[in-house]
């Protein structure tokens, strides 16, 4: 997605050869116009998948997921990383380890919102090691719902998550795939080439 690549080139900061900072439009301050365009793009790519729910995880997945749900006309659910005061029982849970942050979170979604037969589109801001995708997939399986695909705003193609998830036969659509962050440079993988 050209508009997103341009935004990353203009505003993204390479923190190391592993980490890209994008808090001017995605992870802290949010660019609503860009999120709208991202929602339209995901909705267009998954328009024939019969999606009934969009599922993401707090916090940075919520903005792109919301705009996608708005476009597709379906509800948006976000998994919680911390238990809420009112969400005490009837939960689907999975354990997710973050290699980037070296911490493990128990993520949860209420059974009230994911149902047997739901066709779920998963949306997230970053794909790195793929642990969030696996955790959310576990929750979808527990609900006996079906994962129709995964929409990622920025995939770090040099980390293993994308390859691992595609090898599981899951459809992954990433709007920008970063091939490398070496030498303080962002290099994108061109669309249509394999990682
Ligand atoms: P994984 O699910 O692919 O295994 O991801 P990982 O554990 O490596 O990532 C953990 C957190 O770090 C996630 O956010 C993810 O979005 C974020 N992250 C990973 N790589 C980058 C990067 O290069 N740049 C930025 N900006 N973020 C990255 P989170 O902890 O869930 O944060 P938030 O959603 O609450 O903002």
Distance between the termini: 17 Å
Q: Can you list the strand order of the major beta sheet?
A: 4-3-7-8-9-10
Structural class: alpha/beta
What is the CATH C level class, in words?
A: Alpha Beta
Order of helices and strands: HEEHEHEEEEHEHEE
Number of DSSP E strands: 10
Supply the number of helical segments.
5
The portion of residues assigned to helices is: 25-40%
CATH topology group: Rossmann fold
The appropriate CATH architecture is: 3-Layer(aba) Sandwich
Bound molecules: guanosine-5',3'-tetraphosphate
Q: How many domains in all?
A: 1
Mean pLDDT: 95
Query: How many strands, which pairing sense, and closed or not: the largest β-sheet?
Result: 6 strands, mixed
Assembly state (oligomeric):
single chain
Question: What is the CA-based Rg, rounded?
Answer: 16 Å
* Spatial shape: globular
Poorly predicted runs: none
Percent in strands: 25-35%
């Amino acid at each position: 997605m050209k508009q997103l690549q341009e935004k990353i080139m203009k505003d993204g900061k390479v923190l190391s050869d592993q980490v890209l900072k994008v808090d001017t439009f995605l992870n802290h301050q949010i660019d609503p116009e860009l999120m709208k365009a991202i929602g339209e793009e995901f909705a267009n790519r998954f328009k024939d998948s019969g999606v009934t729910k969009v599922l993401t995880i707090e916090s940075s997945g919520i903005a792109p997921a919301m705009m996608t749900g708005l476009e597709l006309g379906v509800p948006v659910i976000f998994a919680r990383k911390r238990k809420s005061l009112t969400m005490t029982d009837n939960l689907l849970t999975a354990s997710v380890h973050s290699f980037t942050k070296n911490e493990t979170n128990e993520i949860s979604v209420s059974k009230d919102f994911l149902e047997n037969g739901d066709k779920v589109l998963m949306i997230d801001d970053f794909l790195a090691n793929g642990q969030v995708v696996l955790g959310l997939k576990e929750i979808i399986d527990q609900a006996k719902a079906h994962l129709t695909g995964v929409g990622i705003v920025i995939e770090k193609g040099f980390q293993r998550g994308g390859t691992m998830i595609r090898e599981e036969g899951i459809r992954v659509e990433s709007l920008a795939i970063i091939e490398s962050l070496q030498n303080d440079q962002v290099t994108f993988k061109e669309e249509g080439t394999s990682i």
